[in-house]
Amino acid sequence: MIKLMIVDDEPLERLALRKIINRELFHIEVLEDAKNGTEAFEKAKLHRPDIILMDIRMPEISGIDAQKKIIKFLPNVKTIIITAYSDFSYAHEAIKFGVVDYLLKPARPEDVKNAIEKAISLMNKTHTDFPEHHEHSGEHTLAEAIRYIEKNYQKELRLTDVADFVHLNPQYLSRLFKKGLGTTFTDYLTKLRIEKAKRLLLETNMPIYRIAVELGFSDAAYFSKVFLKSEGKSPFEFKKVASLSV
Q1: CATH for 187-245?
Q2: What is the pTM of this model?
């Protein structure tokens, strides 16, 4: 799974970005936030994110200075600058230090999603070991496959179905998933369904068997088994614990 770190000195901004990512991009693991450039450097060294969403003007050291330090030990990290300041001299300097996109606050959810998908495509291009003539088409394939899965996860969905949609053979797509996301197609689909299940358990009163059917599981027992393996507790226990903590 792709690891992403949010760096911003404004708590509400960090929360808003986290919500956008959790809602739109289920293949992203959002790491512990950093609230300034010094924390960004320390936490990047500890957690080694693949993508960073970074504010520019922060206490202690700026986002640009943090990025200069981070790329010394994470040369392939894809950093997206998000800032309230439209001074594009910052953008010019940022590009020299491996920043892949530059968004102005308040960034629209669609723009955040597109910037992250661009970063993923660049990661795929950087890490792919496929022949050169496949590289260009491979840049967007993973993002297209993910969008298709997110629209059709409630159906009986197989790797061959997704491969047909993006016009690739299943073996190639399987390798693309492993390289780009660090997971298999099956594990990605399961994780997506579990995240959707958690939301339904928290936000609705739907019975567990209905949630299982809604999310494309063959039956409630299988759904409960998969949920337990993923979350360490059954759907019923998860809902009970959540209700007690409210």
Answers
A1: 1.10.10.60
A2: 0.53
